[in-house]
Amino acid sequence: MNIIIHEQFTLTAELKAEYQSRVIEYARQLLQFESVTPDDAGCQTWIAKKLSMLHG
Questions:
Q1: Predicted confidence (pLDDT) per residue in 4-53, tens digit
Q2: Is the pTM of this model over 0.85?
Q3: What residues contact residue 34 under an 8 Å CB cut-off, 6+ apart?
Q4: φ/ψ of residue 39, rounded to 5
Q5: 37: left (phi over 0), alpha (psi -120 to 50) or beta
Q6: Better-scored residue on pLDDT, 48 or 1
Q7: In angstroms, how far is the first alpha carbon of the chain from the final one?
Q8: Distance between CA 54 and CA 38 in Å, rounded?
Q9: Under a CB-based contact definition with an 8 Å cutoff, are residues 33 and 40 in contact?
Q10: Could you give the dihedral angle defined by the CA atoms of residues 35, 42, 28 and 56, in that order, rounded to the nearest 10 degrees?
Q11: For 55, which of 14, 19, 45, 48 is 20 to 30 Å away at the CA?
Q12: Could you give phi then psi for residue 46, rounded to 5 degrees?
């Protein structure tokens, strides 16, 4: 799996492994929410928090 962040930026194998591990862990956490529309059991709040961390 290649991760393209910017054409001039190359991920080290260690960083790539960290990102892959984090994606798997986030997917596991997200699947733990007992979300049935319209009750999202907090999953949208969890996603919003994770996304907001991307912008500092």
A1: 555 666 778 888 888 889 899 999 999 999 888 888 899 999 999 988 88
A2: no
A3: 41
A4: -85, 105
A5: beta
A6: 48
A7: 26
A8: 27
A9: yes
A10: 150
A11: 14
A12: -60, -45
Selection from 50, 55, 53, 56 nearest residue 25 by Cα:
50
**What is the enclosing helix (H) or strand (E) of 23?**
helix 13-31
- Looking at residue 48, what is its pLDDT? 92
- 21-44 b/e with 16+ CB inside 10 Å = b? eeeeeeeeeeeebeeeeeeeeebe
User: How far is C-alpha 3 from the chain's CA centre?
Assistant: 13
- Are 46 and 53 contacting, i.e. CB atoms less than 8 angstroms apart? no
Here the tokens at position 41 are 């059991």
